[in-house]
Amino acid sequence: MNKKSTDEDIKTRLDKWLWAARFYKTRQLAAEAINGGHVQLNRQRVKPSRVLKVNDKLSIHKTPFTFDIIVEALSVRRGPAKQAQLLYTELEESIQKREELAAQRKLNAAQFPHAERRPDKRDRRRIIRFKNINREN
To answer: Does the N-terminal or the C-terminal CB of the chain have fewer CB atoms within 10 Å?
Structure first.
């Protein structure tokens, strides 16, 4: 009675699959994201214990990006990243939107650079003095 397991035989919870596919570092984070409405299965809100099937469509919102994927395989174990990427296929539209958003964020970061260091006590005094001068006028 030794039966080989296939993808149809494996029953995987949604939170466990998201963890195995490396979308979240822990199952708890995956469950919190699902409960918070950041993960939708076939455009519906679900619970973390929902059983996942092959060809299910997931929409995963991780600020500021959204991943629209199709489940290709099921797994209950978290493996290497190369193996995790074989568990799903991301839609072309999703990839394109993420790349555009990443390019836009990069452009915004170039336009508004951050200070090299935090202001020290002397700098803070100058900032306060500058703000007070502007309020008086």
So the answer is: N
Per the prediction, the chain carries an average pLDDT of 89
Q: Where are the beta strands (DSSP E) in the chain?
A: 12-13, 39-41, 44-45, 51-52, 57-62, 65-71, 88-90
The architecture CATH gives domain 12-114? Roll (3.10)
- What one-letter code names the amino acid at 66? T
Name, in order, each residue with C-beta under 8 angstroms of 50's C-beta and a sequence gap of 6 or more. 13, 14, 41
CB 46 within 8 A of CB 52: no
- Given this model, what pLDDT does residue 72 score? 95
Instruction: Tell me the Cα Rg of the chain.
Output: 23
Nearest CA among 46, 53, 88, 47 for reference residue 68: 88
